[in-house]
């Protein structure tokens, strides 16, 4: 999640990367910077058309593809569901997916980060990036 001024800086970065900020792109970027809940394309379309009724679902799909190609957003292919998206400028974190509600919970563990580095180093690698997804159910009682 980020503030309006961070969203503005983000647009500036994209423009510098040669991405023309059209109205639908701005609308979608705003939704992703304000949402923080990793919406899927249909949900992004629902929110976008509430802001700008002229946006079509195909515009949303096309824009998501372009923003992904430019490295502006991350696509998550979480198990058993459509791709979900988030802004790429958020700090590194991993995800826990609630299998009952589909909620995506962000977390970061310095211990896990350090352990991954250690494992990669032992195997003769340095990590360029990683994705870690935990799937779980809320414990009862
Ligand atoms: Zn996330």
From TrEMBL:
InterPro entries, alphabetized: FUR, Fur_C, WH-like_DNA-bd_sf, WH_DNA-bd_sf
Cofactor: Mn(2+); Fe(2+)
Domain of life (superkingdom): Bacteria
UniProt xrefs under CDD domains: Fur_like (cd07153)
Subcellular location: Cytoplasm
Any single biological process term in GO: negative regulation of DNA-templated transcription
Subunit structure, interactors included: Homodimer.
Family: Belongs to the Fur family.
Protein name: Ferric uptake regulation protein
Lineage: Bacteria, Pseudomonadati, Pseudomonadota, Alphaproteobacteria, Hyphomicrobiales
């Amino acid at each position: 999640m980020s503030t309006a001024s961070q969203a503005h800086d983000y647009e500036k970065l994209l423009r510098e990367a040669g991405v023309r900020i059209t109205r639908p792109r701005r609308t979608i970027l705003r939704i992703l910077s304000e949402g923080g809940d990793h919406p899927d394309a249909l949900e992004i379309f629902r929110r976008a058309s509430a802001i700008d009724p002229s946006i079509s679902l195909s515009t949303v799909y096309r824009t998501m593809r372009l923003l992904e190609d430019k490295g502006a957003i991350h696509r998550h292919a979480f198990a058993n569901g459509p791709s979900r998206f988030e802004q790429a400028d958020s700090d590194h974190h991993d995800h826990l997916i609630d299998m009952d509600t589909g909620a995506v919970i962000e977390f970061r563990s310095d211990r896990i980060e350090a352990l991954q580095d250690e494992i990669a180093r032992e195997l003769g690698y340095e990590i360029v990036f990683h994705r870690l997804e935990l799937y779980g159910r809320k414990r009862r009682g």
